[in-house]
Amino acid sequence: AKMAAAASDLLTGWCLFGLALLAILIFCWVYVRKYQSRRESEVISTITAIFALAVALITSALLPVDIFLVSYMKNPNGTFKVWADANVSRQIEDTVLYGYYTLYSIILFCVFLWIPFVYFYYEEKEEDDGNTCSQVKTALRYTLGFIMVCAVLLLIGAFVPLDIPNKKNSTEWEKVKLLFEEFGSSHGLTALSFSISSLTVIGMLAAITYTAYGMSALPLNLIKGTTSAAYERLENTEDIEEVEQHLLRIKSKCRDGRPLSSRDRRTLQQLEERLRTLRRRERHLESIEKSWWIKFCEAIRPLKIVWGVFFIIVALLFTVSLFLSNLDKALHSAGFGSGFIILGTNLTNPLNMLLPVLQRVFPLDYILITTIVMYFIFTSMAGIRNMGIWFFWIRLYKIRRGKTRPQALLFLCMILLLIVLHTSYMIYSLAPQYVMYGSQKYLVQVRCKVFLSDFVVVVVLCYSVLFPFNLDECIVTRTYLFLHKFWFFSAAYYFGNWAFIAVFLIGLIVSCCKGKKSVIEGEVDDDDSDMSDDELSVYYH
Q1: What pLDDT shows up at residue 504?
Q2: Helical segments of 36-131, H only
Q3: Quick one: which of 62, 68, 56 has its CA closest to 97?
Q4: Over the range 373-396, which residues count as b (16 or more CB within 10 Å of their CB) and which as e?
């Protein structure tokens, strides 16, 4: 009976997972096709981008599943469910653990082998349309460097010491040691964890760069909207007339056969390039004015404003929660040598207050956690789309509708894979106790105040600071154990959160000071070819 109940619940879960997987694949296909260049599209790069984006979204969805499973094994009165004995609980935990190992191994495969190989293969194909075998060999030679980096990380992870530095205040660490020992005794795979944690640090840097900016840029762009296509077209026509008049003045200097000076020739060349760009803008603006999609967007403008206000409120809520959580770690953790880990909560934040309230109505708390995860993913996409892909101060690629090169899509998917790895720690920072235990409760005996000799049984949340932590009664999520297996990575994440808050505030100020975006923002550049006009026309029609 126990196994039948568990099997029924697992079957329902797998059905829901299948539907979610189908929805993720459809979204990834639509998203990649939306931004993909029609002229430069390649089957292998398209499949790689869709697969990598799907892996990123599926991995991000594993966190709510992990929290749900540890919570589902216990009743609201703090007791374990009938079917959730020690063996079944262990099987469920191992299933989640294997899910993490599988997805993280796929991410390692994508980041260190598949995406670099496809990228270098396509780069080599652009430079030389010759022998396919030579292109594959060259791509493999460049990819070998990524494979060596992965091998080094795995070797370091296999032998890295996990001893926690001795501290005078070791109460918190004694509890954490028990968790790590339990985790290490059940398929810890330290090497994989170290490699993933290393990539998570890179993902942290990407989140600081793109997600923090996207959280401010996305809402404010929705609120401010874009300029009118008719107004832009009128301004563009005036610019064309001005450039044409300037060109006529320069050309009039050589009517009597005199050659132009080098300065005039340079100016003439610049003006001709400027005129070509303005005429491309004219064609794009004319196409947009006739587009039914733009007219539909104008009709739902009030709805965009509402969504923008909602998103900015959510972003401010996240920032305040992240600030209070980091402040709590700074004041009450064991410090840098412990990775700033705390098991209790001393300074509550809005999300930690909201989640216990939503737990009373199933499944509102899980909906909120899933929404938060998806919010981070979509704001990351918005940040990458607005900023483009940079290597320090060098801009490598732009992300544009219907005109994004295959290499840029591969870079975008790799960045999203890295950001997804860091998303779990961001959610933990926002609601640390909830990510550890979900909605679990347990029974504890307390002395009655009226009759001092009697004890009463009280149901308390697992992350309550009023009662001692009970490792036997509270099951910790696998996500938490992955996040804090190495204390030095936890310390890096802590400082990364402060940087994330700073970049968000700077991005918010910059976004507020900027005016409305052009209706064809980023769609027309000086380095575009005239053939690119056809791509955008196809997109809008």
Answers
A1: 92
A2: 43-72, 86-109, 115-127
A3: 62
A4: bebbbebbbbbbbbbbbeeeeeee
The residue count of the chain comes to 541
Whole-angstrom CA distances from 292 to 289, 422, 541 are 8, 39, 8
CB of 380 within 8 A of CB of 218?
no
Instruction: Taking each helix axis as running N to C, give the angle between helix 229-251 and helix 262-289, from 0 to 180 degrees, rounded to the nearest 10.
Output: 160
Tokens linked to 125: 């194909």
**Beta strand 394-397 with 389-391: parallel, antiparallel or unpaired?**
antiparallel
Q: What are phi and psi of 484, to 5 degrees?
A: -115, 25
347-398 tens-digit pLDDT: 777 887 787 777 777 677 778 877 888 888 888 888 888 888 887 778 888 8
How many angstroms separate the CA atoms of 445 and 471, rounded? 16
State the Cα–Cα distance between residues 181 and 183, nearest whole angstrom: 5
Residue 160 CA to residue 194 CA, distance in Å, equals 9
Token pair for residue 9? 């619940």
Least Cα distance to 210 among 59, 409, 375, 382 occurs for: 382
**Is 521 within 8 Å of 386 (Cβ atoms)?**
no
What is the mean predicted confidence (pLDDT) over 323-328? 87
pLDDT tens digits, 139-179:
888 889 888 888 887 777 766 655 544 444 445 445 555 44
Model pLDDT for residues 146-155, shown as the tens digit of each residue: 888 888 877 7
Q: Which contiguous run of DSSP H or E holds residue 457?
A: strand 455-461
Widest CA span in the chain: 115
First to last CA, the chain: 58
Alpha helices in 252-300 (DSSP H): 262-289, 292-299
Domain boundaries, the chain: 1-153+186-229+289-440+475-513, 231-288, 441-474
Q: What is the DSSP letter of 443?
A: E
Q: What is the DSSP letter of 42?
A: -
Q: CA 430 from chain center: how many Å?
A: 15
Within 13 Å of residue 203, how many CA atoms lie on the same side as its CB? 28
- Calpha distance 164→162 (Å, rounded): 6
Measured CA distances, 170 to 69, 164, 166 (Å) = 30, 10, 7
398: which 2 tokens? 């732009």
CA distance 422 to 206: 9
Q: What is the pLDDT of residues 56-115, one digit of tens each?
A: 888 877 887 788 877 777 777 777 777 666 666 777 777 777 888 888 888 888 888 898
Answer whether 431's CB lies under 8 Å from 355's CB: yes
**Global pTM value:** 0.77
- Spatial separation of the C-alpha atoms in residues 131 and 141, rounded to whole Å: 16
Q: Within 13 Å of residue 409, how many CA atoms lie on the same side as its CB?
A: 33
**DSSP alpha helix (H) spans, 394-449:** 406-430, 432-437
Q: In 10 A of CB 512, how many CB atoms?
A: 11
